[in-house]
Each structure stands twice: as C-alpha cells, then as structure tokens.
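Checklist before submission:
- one chain only
- standard amino acids only
- sequence pasted in full

Submission:
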Amino acid sequence: MLDLFRDFFTKEPLDTAGNMWWDSLCFDWHCGNRKREWGGEDLLLQDVIFRTLTSILDLDSEFCQKAALHGLGHLHHPDTPGLIQQFIERNPSMPYELKAYALDAAKFEVL
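Returned file contents:
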C-alpha cells in the first residue's frame, strides 16, 4: 500500500480515491465489526494497517497525508492520538484545514 501512495497517488491524486481506499479497509473498526480486543486477525491487521498509514503520513504529499489521516480516523488504533500529535508538532506550518482534519482524526471523528 505504501508503494501505491508513494509511487502513484503523490503524482496522480484521484479526487477521493485515497480516502475511500481506507474506508474500505478501516471502517470495520469504526463501526465495530472488528475490535482490537478480540485479538487474532483483528489485532494483527489493525497493527499492520496502522504502520502503513504511519508511513503514508510521512510522505511529502498533502493528498497522501489527508488520506492517511482519514484511514487513521476510521481505524481506531490506540496509538493514533499520539501519532497525530507528533505529526502536528513536526509540521507547524501545515495548512489550517489539514491541522483541523488531523485533530478530528485523532478523536476518530472523520466522515
């Protein structure tokens, strides 16, 4: 997934495709169909997706960063708030809209 975002979406953002990509993979945690506390595949998959989204968040592309924030906002990983706080601190000059979106993602309040 990182390759897709790094090698394709950084050059060809496709409107809402980046956000919707993560809806299809992360929304199960948002709506409760998957739960970390169930362990097994739910926990392992959530951790793998979290690591991937963390890497995408580090790309120098606002489109990819917003897509990663969108996924994080649906994934409900327990490390999300801390990750997003670090992202905001590393990027003090980010646009207001992106920072507001990041803060919503940290509270799992993205649409």
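Reviewer check: Helices lie at 2-9, 17-30, 40-57, 62-75, 80-90, 96-106.
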